[in-house]
Every structure is written in structure tokens, then in C-alpha cells.
Amino acid sequence: MARNIDGLEKAVHGRRRNTQDLVWSDISRTDSGIAEEGRFGVMTRPMQLGKGKNVEGAQWTGVVTGIAVSMLESGMVDAVVCIASNDDDGIDNNWSNPQPILARTVDDVLRGRGVKPALAPSLAVLDELKDSTDIKKLLFCGVGCAVQAFRAIQHELQLDEVYVLGTNCADNSPTPEAAKKFLSRSFKDKLDGKRVRGYEFMQDFKVHVKYDDGTEQSQPSYERLPYFSLQGDVAEFAIAKSCLACFDYTNALADVVVGYMGAPLDSSMDASFQTITVRNKMGERMLKCAVVSDRLQLGPDASGSGPAHEKFASTTVSSDNIVQKMAGGEMKSEGMPRLLGEIMASLMTAAGPKGVNFARYSLDYHILRNYLHVLDVWGEEGANNMIPAYSLEIVKKYLDTDEAFKALAEKIKSKR
Fold first, then answer.
1. How many Cα atoms sit within 13 Å of 127 on the Cβ side?
2. pTM > 0.70: yes or no
């Protein structure tokens, strides 16, 4: 992990990120409201907001799909590697069943609409690509772990041009069945008879499930549940073990990255802005193509506000069931009663970090939790060897300044 990101960042973007460029509440700076490189990766411009245009049936507004379609339509690429939903079983509720495809037409690309919340073998189609003599310009779409693997071998594909479109990612399920089990356990019978289109852990501290009634003309609806009301043991089966050792939620090696944690939350996914991070000249070309093709609407720069994110991140880590189990505690089997969970989510949304500051909170929480996981599994030396440099900077800051996090780390180290 560390070798891939730290070594390939310069090879891909022409330079490594400035790992010292980190926003902290105890260090005054005039640009603390915008995304910084230390956490969010190499950037050629400030992180920006955007919405997709003329993309029907997207989970959000179609930013990723819009960019991919514009590049294929314009001839900028010959094919697109993306993740579709596997419909081999003939069931029209297969949103969680990912299938990598080599898309050569717009209709093929449109099969990739929507987030697939389960691990996908994204590189499985590369054998098909190597056998195709008519593909010389390729767009590869994927989450951070897939992009890292692709960047490591793309030189073997003998392509003239390669573009990479990434998405932010956090805690995928190991299998489609695990993702569906998460929803059935969490929402019980509320989604019975509904056609699920996807779900996300959103900035209002709730899980949003997008669904419709399964008919062609049906409009999307949403079911929402506070994080705090989730059953305590869902993480045991719903989060892939590999995701607990991931430190690339921001997709450091993609040319363009699309996400949502740093964006303001609107009433629903299909009305909300998403964040767009451009990392190099290839990414600039990709963005220009989508705008000129009228597939992308750019908004203002992403910004943040609210209180210091560090205490929120540390408190979330300390109360995390996975962390509690690592530290020898009991894993809670039940979450808060729904009413209390709604009150807590409302308070956290009103009083907590927002926009880019919320993204900092989310990133730091996952980095700290995952550091404790690799510390537990591989020990201090192994953890420090595998963690990328930028993540180590964040971990060291909390070890130096947050007594609760330092105590957790010491307790986990003492088990060995």
C-alpha cells in the first residue's frame, strides 16, 4: 500500500503531494476552508463542486457517467473499463452485484451507473483488453484499490493513452450478499418489495437508501436510518477486511476523482453536488471534454465550515465497535433506539463539521481506525511500513495531541 501510493504518485502526476500541507485546528491558516493536499492528494486546482447533466437513471446526478460517456462519444477513448451490475440471474434488483466490463458503446457505459457497494475484480477484463487490437486509448474507472493495481501494470498493456477516473470509497462489503444482508438487518421490512438503487453513508450521519417501486416510470424515494441506530455487529460482516487496511479513500492515483463527503448535502442524492478533484493534465482534459459535451455542470470550489474536526474523529474512533473489540472490549449488539438516533444525528449535523471539514473528519476517522487495525494485526513496525507517508503524518499528530487515541494505540500494542 505505502509503496504503491508513495512511489507511484510522482510517476503518475509528475510530483508527490505535499504531506506537510494539513489543516489542523491548532495551526492558524487563511485557507483552512478549502481542501488541502496532505489529506486529499495532488491537485492542479482547488477541489470543485459539480453535477452531471443529461444522464438519466444515475444514483447521484451522473458526474462519473457523464465524464465517461463524453470521452467515448468524442473519440477521446476507444473503450471504458467500468463496473456494471451483473444481471445473469435475471433479477432486476442486482444493484450490489458488480461485474467489470469493457464498454465500447454508450449503452455499455450506462450499465455502469450507480455505486456498487461490494468488492469487484476490476482488472478481470484486462485479458479481453490485451486481446483487442482496436483499443489504443482507454479510460479506466475504479475505486482506490483497483486504481492502485491498475497503475502498477498499465505499462504492460501497450496502450497509446490511458486515463483514470476514480471515485472516493469507504468500507465496501466483501460480497453482494453481505451488502444485501446489511440492508435487511438494518432496515428490516422497510425495503420489502422495493427495488434498491444504492445506498450511501451521508453527511447528515444517516444511511440513505435510494429505491423505487420497480416500474419503468417510477420516481426514486429514500429510506434513511441514523448511523447511531445501526446494529453494533453489522460491521463484522458488512465491511471487507481489506478495507480495514486501506489508506486510499481519496483515490490518490486517479487523474480525476469524484466523491461527496466534501460537498454540501441537499435533500437527496439526485439533487446534490459532488466533489471533483483534478490531479494532473490528463484530468484537466477529461473535465474539459465533459463540460464541452454538456455532460457536466461545474459549480464553486468546495468549502468547509464548523468546529474543529479532530475531536469528532477521535470520539468516533473511541466509540467504534470494531475498535472496541480490538482493545478487548465488548461489541455492542444493538444501536440506539430510533428516536434517540434521530436526535443524535440532528445534533451532530447542526453542530458538527460541514463540507470539506466533514470530509476531514471522515478521512481522519477511517485513517485512525485502520491504523489501529494494522497495528493489531501486524504490530507497530509492520503498520508503519505499510502505511503511506501522508497517513502517517495524520496518525502521528493524533498520537502526539490526543490522549484518548494514544491510550487506544498503547492498549492494542500491549496485546502482542
1. 2
2. yes
